[in-house]
Structure formats: C-alpha cells, structure tokens
Amino acid sequence: SSAMLGLAVNGSFANLIVYLIQQFNVDRIAAAQILN
Asked: So which domain of life are we looking at (predicted)?
C-alpha cells in the first residue's frame, strides 16, 4: 500500500515538474517575442 502511495506521489511530482518546466518555457518564449 505504501509502495503504491509512493509511486502515486512520485508520478504526481514528476507531472508537476513537467508542468512547471512547460510554463517556464512558454513564459520565456513570450518574453523573447516581446523583446523582439
């Protein structure tokens, strides 16, 4: 049970990291377009 919980937490954390990286990349691209 605890192993399944750990996998779920790790999966959610990984998804959160991917989401934050995507948001950061979108913001960086938007900033580059504004500067250009």
From this structure: Eukaryota
